[in-house]
Amino acid sequence: MSDTKLIAERFANDGGGEESPPAPGLFRRMRAEPLLPEAGAGGAPLTAVIAVMSFLAALALAAFIIIASAAGAWTSELRSALTVQIKGADAATIVSLTQAAMEVLNSTEGVVEARALSPEESAKLLEPWLGKGNVSAYLNIPAIIEVQITDDLRRDIGLLRTRLDAAAPGAVIDDHGEWHQRLATAARSGQALAFAVFVLIMGAAFAISMFAARAGLAANSEIVSLLHLVGATDDFIAGQVQRRFLVLGVRGSLTGLLGALLALGLAALALRASGGAADFLPELKLGPSLVLPLLVVPFALCLVTAATARTTVLRTLAKEL
Amino acid sequence: MIVGFENVGLAYEGQPEILADLEFTLGEGEFRFLTGPSGAGKTSLLKLIYLAHRPTRGRLTLFGEDVTSAPREALPALRRRIGVVFQEFRLLDHLTAFENVALPMKVAGVNQNQYREDVRELLNWVGLGDRINARPPTLSGGEKQRVALARALVTKPDLILADEPTGNVDPVMGEKIMKLFVELNKLGAAVIVATHDLSLISALDKPTVVLREGRLSPDGSEPQRKTARR
Predict the structure, then answer these.
(1) Which of A30, A81, A226, A240 has minimal Cβ neighbours within 10 Å of its Cβ?
(2) Is A102:A86 a contact under the CB 8 Å cutoff?
(3) In what helix (H) or strand (E) does residue A213 lie, and over which residues does it extend?
(4) Which stretch of DSSP H or E encloses residue B128?
(5) How far is B51 from chain A (nearest CA, A)?
(6) Is B148 exposed, middle or buried (CB count within 10 Å of its CB: 0-12, 13-18, 19+)?
(7) Tell me: the pLDDT tens digits for A238-277?
(8) CA A285 to CA A295: how far, in whole Å?
(9) Are A86 and A97 in contact (CB under 8 A)?
(10) What number is the ipTM of this complex?
(11) Any A CB within 8 A of B154 CB
């Protein structure tokens, strides 16, 4: 038998032609070689753009987390602290009123700790305004009592106010309510801003992926047409594009995340080195509580880019034959 | 019936009809030569059959299914039953000869273990066993044509369409390819070979239809060898 006859017998349809071959499994698709060439949708520029977006999104999310954690710490500190200020006509009156107030505070349930500042400590608080010197010799500096209280007492602060007023008339309780309110508002604004930036970046990722998928499809139109002619479904072609975008997304977003972690690490070192500034700025520590939530960024970016590319391709192909 | 044209016309957007009033049938296991002068519309007619275009009028059936208005989702399964040797080869430059031949199987989701040997065997048969990893830009026109032929056959199609399949190969390979079509046809595949090579047509005793200025000659499904030879 000639080799032509042999090959013909080998490749003659045996009547099973009406059956479609089995659909490819997800694992096999993921392992398959890409059919769309790398140059199609501008691989390197798209990876770079995704990396930048990942970097910014990670910083925005880090800001959100840091502000939330700092605001929590600050407000909880303020919630558990109050200050009692005692004024008097002379030093002796101030001392006796302070003792009376301390007795009330020490006997009140919910007061964790009450500590009267010494005259020297009180005078030191005035140094930024009055300068160094024997200020207490010339002024009747009010006594200051720092008090740590429980949440229960905070809710019932009016009772403490009444009792203190009876024992030490003129005593002023500063429960830091105004500060607490301001801090909470500032924290909420900061968090909202950080979240808005994060959402905007995801929106930009969506738009860029859509344009890139369309451009990639246009650049590979000959290949897409051939794939259709040899029996590819839209889903198969969309899967190819989606896989490509997923690879670019993983590459770009992980690069961006690493860049953001590096930047945050450097900022943490700078804050620690600056010393004083750390007292006023939120604490920045690259621990699991900050790094783990940031893993959401590459995941979200990959999801957005791959899903957008797939949807865009399916919509575009639906207009063709 | 494998292919059925009923009063089919094709016009590209805003252009006059390039194919008109086509009446043509191809039954199971039939062989047709399609010939006619350059620009007569042979390639456009094949494009209708391999579903690159839909008719702008009339009715076209493939494997008994009306494809004139069939939903897009129905087309891939029909296309997988057709093996096409394109005139311009249409190979993917970034894939190797092996990957190009395997493309229809890959697209259909067939496991590589199931088609690896088939692809190698076909490439060996067309004389490219030693160029299995070569990419099209490094292949000659004839070699590309042979890869395109192997790709058309790898799925064991019910219908083989070949557009000038011997145009770039030497006479020996051309004869070999035509013999293969004849053998595949004997084993049940329907075959349409578009060519203007009259010596090719005269070498085989097969029915021929002639296309002139977008119209098939009357009773186009009947043998037209004399007309073709003229």
Answers:
(1) A30
(2) no
(3) helix A177-219
(4) none
(5) 7
(6) buried
(7) 998 898 889 899 999 999 999 999 999 998 888 888 765 5
(8) 16
(9) yes
(10) 0.90
(11) yes
Query: Which of A95, A140, A143 minimizes the C-alpha distance to A121?
Result: A143
Nearest CA in chain B to A38: B94
The residues, any chain, with a CB within 8 Å of residue B148's CB and separated by 6 or more, are B85, B86, B89, B90, B91, B100
Check CB contact of A12 with chain B, cutoff 8 Å: yes
Angle between helix axes A221-229 and B97-107 (nearest 10 degrees) is: 60
In the three-class reduction of DSSP (H, G, I as helix; E, B as strand; rest coil), residue B163 is classed as strand
**Cα→Cα distances A126→A135, A145, A255, A317, Å:** 9, 15, 51, 75
Residue A90 contacts B, CB cutoff 8 Å:
no
Distance in angstroms (rounded) separating the CA atoms of residues A58 and A295: 8
Q: Taking CB atoms and an 8 Å cutoff, what residues of chain B touch A238?
A: none
Instruction: Name the 3-class secondary structure at B208.
Output: strand
Strand pairing report for A143-149 and A111-116: antiparallel
A114-129 burial string, b = 16+ CB within 10 Å, else e?
bebbebeebbeeeeee
pLDDT in tens, A162-196: 888 888 888 888 877 777 788 888 888 999 999 99
Query: Are the CB atoms for B89 and B164 separated by under 8 Å?
Result: no
Residues 6+ apart with CB under 8 A from B45: B19, B22, B34, B194, B211
What whole-number distance in Å separates Cα of residue B28 and Cα of residue B50? Answer: 16
Q: How confident is the model at residue B11 (pLDDT cuts 50, 70, 90)?
A: very high
> Using CA of residue B32, residue A12, residue B5, residue B214, what is the dihedral sign?
negative
Give the mutation candidate from B182, B183, B186 for the A interface (greatest A CB count, under 10 A).
B183
Residue B148 has which token pair? 């395109």
- pTM as predicted: 0.75
Classify residue B69 by burial, with Cβ atoms within 10 Å: 0-12, 13-18, 19+: exposed
Cβ atoms within 10 A of the Cβ of A196, count?
12
What whole-number distance in Å separates Cα of residue B132 and Cα of residue A84? 89
Q: Is A90 exposed, middle or buried (0-12, 13-18, 19+ CB in 10 A)?
A: exposed
d(CA A33, CA A242): 13
> Which amino acid does the sequence have at A287?
G
CA distances (Å), A19 to each of A41, B64, B80, in order?
35, 15, 10
